[in-house]
Amino acid sequence: VSKENHTQTSTVMVGNAPIGPSSVTLIAGPCAVETPAQTLEAAQMAVQAGATILRGGAFKPRTSPYAFQGLGAAGLEILADVGREVGLPIVTEVVDARDVDIVAEHADMLQIGTRNMQNFALLQAAGAAGKPVLLKRGLTATYDEWLMAAEYIAQRGNLDIVLCERGIRTYEPSVRNTLDVTAVPVMHDLSHLPIIIDPSHAAGRRDLVLPLARAGLGAGADGLIVDVHPHPEQALCDGPQALVGEAMDELAQLMATLPALLGRT
Ligand code: PEP
């Protein structure tokens, strides 16, 4: 995945949606798929804001075993149905190598979450699944460790990998994680893989999502992945970070203006 022999960042196609240097890709949707109605409403919000890829978790990697773990296979069906209904390709997380086949059957892109960045069996299985992979940075991973995780996928013959900076653990307790904006230009320098940022999981707070999105895109990120929810106060997962209402208008405004300003159409 090194930049050697590459003059520019690669473009990864997810269905018909590009992620690469010529665009600013918005991936949006609910943190977790909860019901068909909630997923559809969130997907419609995503479309309104300019998203070209729908996100949604069916297998959720939760810190507490008592928290909502996702709907599993039923959630995949809901997400795939909703994706078809709104006309967007879908990305969803796979947390276990044994689930790679079923997730790849439904999804246009597989997501490897922060907690599994060094789950090497999972990386290899995802690399062999024939679908693009969104590889989130581990909570405490160095750039080299992150790139080596990408190599596990690439080694299986799959170079359709998109990196995602989603915040790292630091000593600052007032936000959930610290978005490492530096990762964007450094990874662009080291690797030809596109890189997007996840301001929702970085901040854990709705009010910080747009400022962090601007920072990441300003630093050269190839896109954003954000959580949206029609009723965040009822969300079964990460409601406080989900965009809704005016914040969605702000996101739509950002997507309508920023790509042209950045010279990306
Ligand atoms: C997610 O995107 O749903 C998620 C759990 O993200 P992360 O792995 O970055 O915590």
Automatic annotation (TrEMBL):
Record key words, sorted: Transferase
Superkingdom, natural source: Bacteria
Domain DAHP synthetase I/KDSA, chain residue ranges per copy: 23-256
Top EC category: transferase
EC number: 2.5.1.54
UniProt keyword annotation of Nucleus present: no
Gene Ontology annotations of biological process type: aromatic amino acid family biosynthetic process
Molecular function in Gene Ontology: 3-deoxy-7-phosphoheptulonate synthase activity; aldehyde-lyase activity
Signal sequence annotation: none
Name by which UniProt lists this protein: 3-deoxy-7-phosphoheptulonate synthase
